[in-house]
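Researcher: Good morning. I'm working through a list of sequences from a screen, and I'd like to move beyond sequence-only analysis. For each chain I'm collecting a predicted structure so we can compare shapes side by side. This is the next one on the list. No need for commentary yet; just the structure.
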Amino acid sequence: MTEITLSQAQTIIATAMAHGESLGWNPLSVVVLDAGGHVQAFARADAAPPGRFDLAHAKAKGAVLMGLNGSELADRAERMPELISGARAAFGQLVALPGSVLVLSTEGAVIGAVGVAGDTPEHDAEAARAGITAAGLNARP
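Model: Good morning. Structure tokens for this chain:
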């Protein structure tokens, strides 16, 4: 598999949002990007602030363009702030926080990323992983 289909992206979003709702989390916004950083699908839960798209997108964009999960980007930002500063200058909006997870092909190649915003960064990442798994795809550990 070399790409995330629209059907898979919609499954990721629906599952991630349902996962958060079932656990009583704040309303989530979820974006799925392809390997080039383009939006495949997005949804914002009722009552989620409109700015959540920008945050979810910047999380996912950072992950896919840097080839690292959000938690790995956060670690790099702490250890090498100049790297993240340079990436922001090159790519524009980029957020180095947990809450974005890379989607991998069966061969281990990056085929996209999921960014979630709305609850804690750790919960956001958990919701992304739940969605990726439900779509029959692989999440980067």
